[in-house]
Queue: 2 jobs
Job 1
Amino acid sequence: MIPGSCLTIALLLRLTWGLEFVVGPANLTVSLGLSAQMRCQLKGATELPAIHWLKDGKELQDADFTSVTLGEDELLSSIRLAKVQQPDMGWYWCMASVKGVQVNSKKAFLTVEGLPYFTEQPQDLFVFKDTPFNLTCAAVGRPEPTEFLWKMGGVLVEETWKDSPSVLTVKGINRLTTFTCEAHNSKGVTVSRTATVNVKVSPDKPTELRIKNLAPSNVSITWTVTFDGFSKIHTCTAQVDVPTKVGTGSNASVSFEETFPVPPYSHTIRGLSPFTSCGVRLRCSNEVGRSEFTEWTYFQTPEAAPSAPPRNVTYFYNESSLVIWWYDVAAWDVHGILLGYIVEWSWQEKKKEITVDVGSRAVLHPFNPSEKHSIRVCALTAAGRGPWSAPVLLLAQEPGPEEPKPRTSWAPVIIGILCAILTLISVLLVVHHIRRKEMQFGEAFIPVSDGVGQVVQYRAGRTYNRRGAERIEATFDTLGISNALKQKLEDIFIHERQLELGRTLGRGEFGSVKEARLKMEDGPSQQVAVKMLKTEINASGDIEEFLREAACMKEFDHPNVIKVIGVSLQSRPHRRLPVPMVLLPFMKHGDLRTYLVLSRLGDQPVDLPVQTLLNFMIDIVKGMEYLSSKNFIHRDLATRNCMLDQDMHVCVADFGLSRKLYSGDYYRQGSTSKLPVKWIALESLADNVYTVHSDVWSFGVTMWEIAARGQTPYPGVENAEIFDYLIRGQRLKQPPHCTDELYELMYRCWHIDPKLRPTFESLRGSLESLLLGLSPVTEKHQQFYMNLREGAAASECEQGRSTACWEMDGQSPDNMEASAVSGTADYRYVMAPLSLMEDRSEETPTNEIADPLHDEEQEDEIIINL
């Protein structure tokens, strides 16, 4: 009986006996880009195994293999390599395996002749100004590279002609420079990647300095670093400006600095005084140097309890009462608005607290001098009580100091009469001043019809309550904005009493849009939209940026550009700053992007005719033509920032990023902004330069949005990939149902050379020609309405939670006109960036119509370090 191991060996010898490669691959030399073919032939056992090809010891999986059976015991295998490249060069052979035993053919080497192949390329660097550095490149090939040449900023470095170094030593640069390496052999030249070398500089000054977590003695600040100068920021310095205390004999302010490590980009400033107006500014440093200081940001610390007790508490008897008086707490120890004093009166086992609202005197009665008493006093503010004064003890049967009896002398009488006369004169002057102030808006009395007597018709506009904060009248002076901006807005200021605010139309990160009625002084009221900041936003920089947009819109007067109606301020009790409000025309049909998306994805989709879409484009280009004639660049042109009025005309809106070109023909962005990268021109992404030509690029993207019925541009491309996508020559694809003429027109807007893009004037002419070439559409297909149903779901409709609220009705002209004037319909109004959909992101299910609006909106913007 044969053992099992011996039987296995016998079977293997039988299978592999005579199994060999009779033909193997041969050495080949192939030029770059041509095809190569190798083969091997296996002969041996009756059951021939499969033949595998290997390159440099690794099995080839995706090559072009061919196997042919030549006889019962012969198998021919060949491999074909198409368009041979440098990585294909190496050793090749065949392998057959039977039961773990391998049979290999001889090896052959494939040589690829052609251009050099880079194995190491120059890399991007960050260097100090005028400091030497090295760049390296390495290449292989058949034939071997004969020389390496370097280009600096596109210009050949002359020294490399002679030395041909693979390592380039640069003595130093003082600005951004590009480098490339060229490898030469007899077949030609290969150029490496372009390496960018940036010069480290001092960081830009921080932005978005905000005040957080106000406390009586400390405050937290946060900020944003825009550009670190290509070097890590290691410290920041906060400079605090604090006024000197009242009563020190100086009105100056003192400043102190605190330097601290970063990140995180937040810091708590301690040691402040309560109820004090302070200022703070910030700068940051890297290994090169320090940035400039930010503008001053002012704030006021909250109230605190008084830090000192009343002074010199004393008393005297007055028949059955005890009169207590004291000196007021010093102003710098109050730390807020003094609301009064509290007197604690203790006798036997009883205790009583007496609140003194006015003055520094209290009368205790009934008072029994035969009992033991204890008196102490403390000051009171809205933040709480201060420390108690030292107790004043009145022992039983021990009379306190008596009130001095007046002496028989005429001097006190004369002094009293003089004091009374001076007091009377002072009272009359105060009454006269108050009277004049109350009468500055009209007469206080009118005669009655019978001519006898008078009737009071005037009521004071404000009252003062010591216990509560006074309602401060809202004026531009209370905002802390610049005088230049204040002068621009004064002639369009509207008092808040003329406004009657209604429901909220949209909310966003920085504020909201509300419906309102504006009551004109000399005419009927009108419906308006009020754009207002959140009440939590108190930074003067944010308020000035918000009002700057209104000042910008004030200069416009064109039917296709939204015009500001006015600016108002909403005063707030208990707050120092009012809420700024910008009054805009009420746009019945909301923003164009929402209109287009809901025409596609609503419960009853509507096929908008091409004529309607062209009319939208013509309205926008007319508005942009007007803005460019006024030397304004918009910088944020998109369908979300175009509004539809009652007559379905488009108005260009949202000028939060616009700039006026006072000199030259371009604007350079110098700080970090939240910018819509998918709408920005290529040169703006690369160099932060904005011109009328970059607005033409954005108009081309807006035309694409309209033709695609509200789709987000560059579907499937991330925001961070847009620049690389465009620099490779890629552009937006032609939307479905978009004519070739229209796509060619928008494609011209994306020319890489800004000067070769069409002007808004020529674009308007081209679009109007396209419209004239189309047959007119019937009126019933020209527009549709997005109506919110009333009834039980009204509240959900108003909050935007229910997609069942949306109705898209293709109505007849008569019905549409009736719907437009009816009070039963409610239409969406979305002011970018205060998107109504932001409040729906947590409540709306993913299968509702709101999802495309919400999800696509998230792709519109990205923070770019400029």
Job 2
Amino acid sequence: MSLVLLLISLAAYADDPVAAYKNSDSSESCLPNWSNRSNIAEYNQNNARGFELVRHGAAYDLVDDKGTVLYTRLYEIQPYDDDRIVARRQGKHGVIGPDGQLILDFDYHDILLSPDTSIYSVEILDGNIEGSVLIDDSGNWIYPSATKNKTAIEAATEIEVIYPIHANVDTGISYFQVEVESHEQYTDTIKNTGIIDHTGRTIVPIEYYRIDSEISCSNNKLTFMGWKSGYLTIMNELGQTIIEEQANRSVEVFNKNKSLFSLKVYEPKSKQFIGGFDYTGLITEKIVNEYGKVIIESDSVIQQLDGGSILYRFMVNNKFGLIDDEANIVIEPIFDDITNVGSFGPVIKVEKSGKQALIIYDLETDTLVPSSYYDYISTLSNHYPSNLQQLQARINVSDSTNSEPSTASGSLIKENSFVPNNITNKYDYEYDANELFTFANEGKQGLMTAHNNMLIPNNYDSITAYKRLLKVRLGSKYGLVTTVDETVLPIVYDDITEDSRIGRDSNLFMIKKEGRQGILDEFGQVVVLLRDMMIPNILNTSLEDILIFEKEGLYGLIEMKSGKQLLPAEFEHINVEHYTDYILAQKEGRYELYDRSGELVYRADDDIVKISTIDTDINLYDLVSFDPRLSVETKDKYILIKNQDDLYGLVEETSGQLILPVEYEDIQYSPTADSLKNLRDGKVTPLFLATKNDQSLLLNKLGEVLIANKKDIFNIMLYPSYIITMAEISTDKPVKDESVFKWNPTELNLSETGYKMGIIDTDGKELLSADYSMIMPYFNGDTVYIYAVKNNIAYRYDANLQLIDTKDTSELEQVLTSAWSDE
């Protein structure tokens, strides 16, 4: 702003500040582009006069375009976009102007630039004098001024800080917040604060413990919200009170950009909530503007509609209407109720004289008006439209001798079956084109869009969303139709139900007719034809496309898509364990194991209560010569079975042979390989670690016991094909994490482990005596070493357990960890 315009604005303000305030109406930004900070690099690059800040150690020199040094030893430099610089020199701050001349000498403890380029907020600190002052660019003292009882310096020492908050680009008035430290309350220091302008004139007295400023960007108005004695007061730029909060009232911002405020009034209560109000006793709510004028008064809370709407419900004389976020009346208060409905957006339903209607936008009158009235309107919940490219044919149901649904070609559903006009208006009142609603008149239901476009006349007793279709009812019979009333299944079925028991596919549902059942997909196409069977309530299958069915009290399996019967209905119980492809079926008290094709895998001699598969794939992460992401797939497939006594056995999947009888407390798969090549190719020798009667056992694929040991724990190496024995020893030291046995050098802990270890072969022959505290293989490329630690000495062996050399354990840990990192 030029000096002439500034003087005119100030003169106008001095003559008639109210007129200057009321006449200000600008579409420009609330805050002018003043006092924007930059950095030294930006200053050097963009300075209009070619000045440059040159660094010398921790300080800078300001040099002009001719190379003349204007100022030396500048610290804490803060350049601004208008080329002013605030800097510290010899412990004091000053301001250097864009022309290199001093605006304020280096006499101040701190300096804040104000909205007006000629006004500065500074902190003084000189001996016992400390305070904040507002000064002009000549150093003249603007605020505080001397009073009858205090000098200006004494008044300044009571001010903790003065900082700029706003500049009105129309009136030329700049505003500053002043904080004065007041008193101690409990452990907190309570500060009194107020507002002054750039002339030092008091706008808001310094008597509030908190002030927030709300700026309206549409009209460049400033509103102050001040708290005092537990209540809120809202004031305008002139310091005039708009609203003062009192007992049983609360004040909130309704629309900051429009300087609108909400005033809520509550019933007096004998017992107030601490720090709040009893909102159940709300009497009225008003919307007032920055002049304190009441715009809207409601007999109840003014409630914003859901879904991001800018519309609000208000009430007058027990009737409801709508306002927008500028407090303009959109719909007069003439309705008994207004509610938000719909799943996709703020669809509005109104009620009047017991009838309901949706609000639609009238293009001719440019207003929101109610649509046709019905007995009631309800959202069609959880509906999603059909993929019209996938829905290639409709399903017709023949009432022939078998009365089974059959697939037949038919006309495609129209592309615009449920695409109403998509309307956007000045209220941003837009509905999703797929939002559908059921309506009812005289007890019959129909379907319409959010814009009152009727899709299905009210011909049905009920309409509900079902998958991608609509389930309709007439009397006690059900059928399926599209959203434009095209028949998919005729209304002849006793029930059409969604049932989570139908496999893993949640997009299937079941039809029932005359005691028979069938399965349809989400488009109404047949998956399982109507059959004389029932879906049991207590059984479930996790196998995709396979269904357990019941007939005459016995159970069987059927493949849904083909309709092929996998197991006849002759089993007392069928169970499918999760994460397996096997079916456990009980017949005449005996349990049998079937695969998903219905082939018998294993017939048990005793009860089986649980089955699971064993993961036989090998993760080579621990072998540092391999890619850590590599996993080797083996050909071994085994099924772990468990009886009611929690004892385990093992069945080979391909042969159905019982490898290990159901008599072990635990069984673990632990393969080994005789060469690195075979290990890479997945050619391993399967071994099993089992416990029985608290005895550790090593068994082979034939179920033969290779080693039995009552006290040692086995740990089988993948390669070389050795077995580490681990016997727990008595020690006062805690047993260390057994991750040291996982052969990962990044997790090395070579201290005492609480075990004594040795190496044996698969025949039980001792190869390395059991007196080591740690044994681990280490891979370096295709070369493998075996380290065994004893008494802080590491012995390095080759793959044949021939001693190569020894190392100190600290040296070993460093070598292995470094080698791992190199990999």
